[in-house]
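#structure-requests
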Amino acid sequence: MTQQDPFDFLEQVLDAFIDRARGELEHRLKSWRVDLAKKEIHEVLGALLARQVSLATQLARCPSIWNDHVAPLVLRAMADVYISLIWITKDPVDRAQKFILYGLGQVKLQIEHRRAEFAGGEPSEVEKAAIEATEAWVNAQRLIYLTEVKLGSWSGVSTREMAEQAECLDFYNLVYTPFSACTHSMWHHVAKYNLRECANPLHQYHQVPYDPDFRPDAHYLYLAGKYLQKALATFDEWAGIAPPTVTAFGELSSGLDRLSGLIEERERSAKEIGDEGGGQETGLAEPHQGG
């Protein structure tokens, strides 16, 4: 019997995950009763859910970034979305408005920075049109001269305090904080992934910069699916929506288990036939779960 190619199967898993994730978003939007008197809640929570789907599906489309260099950037953004989502649901009217007004204020500030850049000169027609279009976008939601610019956190508290208030401090400690090292290129990330010991023993084993390549690790895709599921489950509990019986994360987990088996089978077959040329190498790190 012909063995299924792991790459072909992985493509099927990714397509199914993306389709199912988008279907789950559509299911929530159709099941959610909208109160137009409080449309900010629908817009903010709906946008955050859609953002979580976008981040998970975009990561799924790019196996080349399933590595320690790039994947944590996406996963840290997903952690941000999750903490913001659950925190807003605790007081949706006030916190959704805060989220919007802070964002509009930041756009106003960007416009002023752009205008300052042209001080003493004239912007081109293209640049002028870009500023006017951005102003129009703000004005369509709130008159720009009434929009207040605030500095600091949009919520008025730190992300850690948001996590405490939202009762997800463990998620903050185990996900948000560790992935922040990659996001901010902190020492405990760059020292681990962009330095290696000098080969010359006379140089006192000092560390030298390098840019390593990593095999794609499907564990990062698993985590993206897991964080998407957490966001969807949080929303379902708050909105009182019955989740679908089959989930994108459930299918992804099953698919990655099967992929792991296919990789093991291929490597075992290669060993048995003595494939010294390495033609059976998949180029993928074997999927694992957890985290």
